[in-house]
Amino acid sequence: MGSIEEASPLVPAISAAGGGGGASPAKKSRTRDLHILSFAFLFVFSAYGAAQNLESTVNTEGDLGTISLGILYLSFTLFSIVASPIVTSLGSKNSLVLGTSGYLLFIAANLKPSWYTMVPASVYLGFTASIIWVGEGTYLTSAALSHAENNNLHEGTVIGNFNGEFWGMFAAHQVIGNLMSLALLRDTEGGEGVSGKNLLFTLFLIFMIIGIIMMCFLSKREEKLNENKTVYKTEIKSLIKSSFSPLLDKRMLLIIPLISYSGLQQAFVWAEYTKEIVTPAIGISGVGGAMAVYGIADAICSLIAGRFTTGLNSITYIVSIGVFLQSFVLLWLLFGYKLTGGLMGILKPLFMGAIWGVGDGIFNTQLSAFLGLIFKNNKEAAFAQFKVWQCAAIAKYIGAIDGTHISARIPIADQVRYRGKRSSQTQNIMCACAFNMCFTFVMTGWEGTANDSRIFLETITKSSNSFPLPPPGKYYLVDRIY
């Protein structure tokens, strides 16, 4: 199967009617759509990504920012289940334009944050986020297939190139948005708040408007599969049924674990990498720089991986490289990584972030290319399942729990009990942290000699501690000590 796949297009090439002169305009129009889509997402998510990172910091009253994000991702997961028939009915371009409206409303709500603005905006964004991502996968794959067919090119190569450029541009939003926040936000006197928030979110709003305008210039995709207009007149029940049809394909069932892992490895960066690796080595001020390195590596790798994609065989090899690289990081953390000082102490977390970014770039481009190749006749349903399983993998975990030692001044009579790992007096603090980097629980007062598992068991078994137990079916991420 591999030799056939690499040697010839998966769809027979069709010569342009009217001679060779017709190929060039078709090529221009398809790459034009790719560039517009990539830049539109860069503008939209440079604003939204940075705004999301700031929610728990700038909207602290009543935990409004944190709760809004929780509502948003719950809504996103639920609506992703039915996103396929919605995108099928609206069309991929209309879904993209409508999808950006939710991000615009969410940014606008942050200019006047309250329960009456943020909660409805979060619910609506969950809906529009589900259709914009299904619309993106559908539109990008459709444009790549049309480009390959009209220009007599191998469709696997074109799908890889298109996904490489898109995800490379998308990864750059992590750098641009965070730099805007760094430039405009300032701590107020006393450190109780920040100034420049309204100016920053106004700039975010402008970025959103530019992104929406760019979406409007996309060419309208006419799917050959949908030339029969009765498709749009079928019953809603039939459309919803078709959205689950990829689950009947064993290839989708086999790729679901990898899709779920792609979500978990992103959660690792948001939570564990910044908290457990970057902050102890470089400090909180170094988190932005480390994430910029991660984003740059992600963007460059997405472009390169896309260029080397030619079909299913190449996807397998490239994904294997991503698995190897991230496995190397995980084994390094488990068995070889130690916190050190000096230049090497700074470079090791940055190098680790760069390797992880390379892996993320590989998973983004190759999983999207795989679904585009295998489910080209049912793209909406395939990309809807992609987002459902990716979100569900993260949604099963509500945060992470770990312990940390904090230096303490202890009376001489009690110093032996409080002697920590480095012979200094410490308290062993157990913390629970959500994936938006907001602490949800802190248990203090335990001696430095106390075992982490003992603290954990005492904390969750005593109702007086008010530990936030996860709902049924939800979990905390912990290490092997717990």
Strand content: 5-15%
Give the overall pLDDT as a whole number: 78
- Could you name the ranges where pLDDT drops below 50 across 5 or more consecutive residues? 1-28, 224-235
Termini separation (Å)?
Answer: 46 Å
What is the count of DSSP helices, taking H or I runs of 4+ residues?
A: 16
User: What is the approximate shape?
Assistant: globular
Number of strands: 6
Order of helices and strands: HHHHHHHHEEHHHHHHHEEEHE
Give the structural class. Answer: alpha+beta
Radius of gyration: 24 Å
Largest sheet: 4 strands, mixed
Question: Biggest sheet, strands in spatial order?
Answer: 5-4-3-6
Helix content: 55-70%
Task: Explain how this protein is built.
With 482 residues, the chain is of the alpha+beta class. Helices cover 66% and strands 7% of the residues. It contains 16 helices and six strands. The protein has helices at residues 2-7, 23-58, 64-80, 83-90, 92-111, 115-150, 155-171, 173-184, 197-216, 236-243, 250-282, 287-307, 312-336, 342-374, 379-395, 452-461; strands spanning 186-187, 194-195, 397-407, 426-433, 439-447, 475-477. The strands form two sheets. The protein has a four-stranded mixed beta sheet with strand order 5-4-3-6. The radius of gyration is 24 Å and the shape is globular. Mean pLDDT is 78; it is low at 1-28 and 224-235.
